[in-house]
Task: structure prediction
Amino acid sequence: MPRIAWIEDAEARGQLADLFDTARVMSQSIGLPASVPDIYRTMSRRPGFLAAIMEAERCLHFADGALIRAQHEMIASYVSALNRCHY
Result:
């Protein structure tokens, strides 16, 4: 059971529902099942904040630059494993 209360998919409305849809599309674009990561769900009670985080992630974290997105993902997965975090 999560310690942070969040809004489930079926309860999401308006901007939050749109953000959840975007998250599903983003996960499919990298070959994962269409889903909303739990880390996004933790911000579901503040859709404006979630939108800003998703935009920053799109523009900064996952934009190709010195590293391609796959390399970003690989580093994030490795660090998560080191920290024993399932993200």
In short: The mean pLDDT is 87. The helical segments are 14-29, 38-41, 47-61, 69-82.
